[in-house]
Specification:
By secondary structure, the protein is mostly beta strands. It has a domain of 105 residues: Jelly Rolls. The protein has 1 helix and 31 strands. Strands 2, 3, 5, 8 and 10 form a 5-stranded antiparallel β-sheet that branches. Strands 1-11-4-9 form a 4-stranded antiparallel β-sheet, with no helix packed on it.
């Protein structure tokens, strides 16, 4: 009989032996269960189960306390992961908890009537499920299969900042909040850069390359992202070429060859303004020339610089009507599309104050003379004889 009793006791104790931490309680009045010392056990996953008879109202609470020199500190309510804490069911209930605390107990209060509450508070080191794998390995399976809706609370992901554990933050849409290690304008001393890459052809990942450069007007070195510029020729993409200084502009046709391609328009802002305009050309029967506007005339309109068909500049005649008393300045040219390509010069002489036309007779040309005596300074012409004479 004794052997049978021992076997029966072992069978009944087997389920409890699977739990590392157990507190049993039977309460008939308001009060606390025994205190479980978790200092050396380290259980983290807890479950409370109880049944009640006789009471018409009750409040059953699982409580935790910190370590105070080996004794429980101030007791507080353990936050339930599932179920309710405190529980007010007058028949039966259960709740689960997650987390480590040095001391735990069950408190019964808020009783109405007489009765009995019996139950267990038990904990374990972990609740992983072994579904296979080699010896010593544990396979962890989530509650939901890939592609199916979530049915359970997610497990938070965290990292270590070098000293403390930090949870990885997301925005309200669930996207990870990525923040650089240094604020804008902050120092990057001692921080490591993150290598940036992208997906190339063939689904291969390639990191972006850097080239060492010297910045303009600076003797210190720098680095810039090596980006190759490409241009499209209508069929293929081709790398944009450069010379040894990094710049290279080439027309669509070689020098002396037949013109090919569309021309590039030239332009700039207008005089005294910011509105852009293109350079204008003029086409005649044989050629296309550039329209040059050298200046404005006295009326404010633009004067065009005219050329003949050989490319020579058409020069105009002296401005004005040939009046005496012109100011001491250069003579302007007026435009003339019929003028000869040589300049006509009309001689003037300066009398000390103004420029005057050089005089001559109608048939004999220039009259030669000189100033007479006296204070008036009268200019007299020299008479010429019709025949040569000897003195």
């Amino acid at each position: 009989m004794r052997i049978i009793a021992l076997l029966l006791g072992s069978l009944l104790a087997a389920p409890l032996a699977a739990q590392q931490c157990v507190v049993s309680f039977t309460l008939t009045a308001a009060g606390n269960s025994g205190v479980f010392n978790n200092l050396t056990k380290g259980c983290t996953n807890w479950t409370v189960t109880y049944n009640s008879t006789g009471f018409s109202a009750l409040s059953l609470t699982v409580q935790t306390a910190p370590n105070s020199s080996g004794s429980p500190g101030t007791w507080a309510t353990f936050t339930a992961a599932t179920g309710s804490n405190p529980s007010t069911s007058t028949t039966q209930a259960s709740a689960t908890f997650t987390g480590y605390f040095p001391f735990l107990r069950v408190n019964l209060s808020g009783l109405t009537g007489t009765g009995t509450v019996s139950g267990l508070l038990y904990g374990a080191w972990n609740e992983t499920v072994a579904t296979g794998g080699s010896a010593g390995d544990t396979t962890v399976i989530g509650p939901d299969a890939p592609g199916s809706p979530s049915t359970q609370n997610p497990v938070q992901v965290a990292g270590n900042d070098g000293t403390d554990v930090r949870a990885i933050k997301t925005d309200t849409s669930g996207n990870s909040s990525v923040v650089g290690p240094a604020a804008d304008g902050g120092s990057t001393v001692g921080l490591q850069p993150v290598v940036i890459g992208g997906q190339a052809s063939g689904n291969l990942v390639r990191q972006f390359g850097l080239i060492d450069t010297l910045t303009d007007a600076s003797a210190t070195g720098g680095r810039s992202l090596a980006v190759g510029a490409s241009v499209f020729d209508g069929t293929n993409w081709n790398r944009q070429r450069g010379n040894t200084t990094g710049t290279y502009v080439q027309g669509p046709a070689a020098s002396g060859a037949t013109a090919a391609g569309n021309p590039l328009l030239l332009g700039g802002p207008g005089e005294g303004g910011t509105t852009l305009g293109t350079v204008m050309t003029k086409t005649d029967a044989t050629d296309t020339g550039l329209v040059v506007v050298p200046a404005r005339n006295t009326s404010g309109s633009l004067n065009f610089l005219l050329t003949d068909l050989s490319g020579g500049i058409l020069q105009g005649v002296a401005a004005g009507t040939g009046a005496d008393g012109s100011s001491n300045g250069y003579s302007a040219f007026r435009l003339s599309s019929t003028a000869e390509p040589t300049q006509k010069v009309y001689p003037y002489r300066f009398n000390g104050s103004t420029w005057d036309r050089v005089r001559g007779s109608v048939s004999a040309g220039t009259t030669i003379g000189g100033y007479g005596s006296g204070a008036s300074g009268t200019l007299y012409g020299m008479a010429a004889c019709d025949k040569a004479r000897r003195s």
